[in-house]
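A sample copied in:

***
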Amino acid sequence: MKTTILGLFALLLSLSIQAQNQNKKTETVTTTTTVKDDAGQHQVVKKEEIKEVQNIELKDVPAGTLNTDIQPTQTQATITTKVSVDGNEKIVDVDHTAYYSYNGEKYHVLSDKSGYTVTGTKNVSLLRRTSGNNYIYKNKNRFSVGHFDANGNLVLETYDEKTDTVTTEVFNLQK
């Protein structure tokens, strides 16, 4: 019994001493702006939290070598922005306010208090955030699910009941 307990204790202790396989860096930048207008004085506090994670990979190790160099890998950065206006806080991961194009038509995605408004030449649609960086796209005629890809393009996926298929539309970010 004593040997079993000591063995389990040694196992738990060795698991906590594992080598780190990622480099992590977190930085927070806070900007406070005070605006005076006819309605009084308003304070806007913007907090940006930048998290950088880099996986550690080793270069090829020749036989008999004890130490080796780290191979450079891509750093993945996540920026979370919290904006507080007079105490009302809104979290914005990435601001996707910009102009997009689809089928030769230009669309303006503009941030509002609940998500985004998508304005085209014909109609106005709503883009509301759900969990996992996904969005619900809603206008008069349709209801879609969307996300922003790595290039910043808006990708909408719409289910068609008649054909039992999902169609994908990519709204390209205008740079």
About this structure: Residues 3 and 164 are 62 Å apart (CA to CA). The chain is about 10% helix and 60% strand. The chain has a mean pLDDT of 82. The two ends are 69 Å apart (CA to CA).
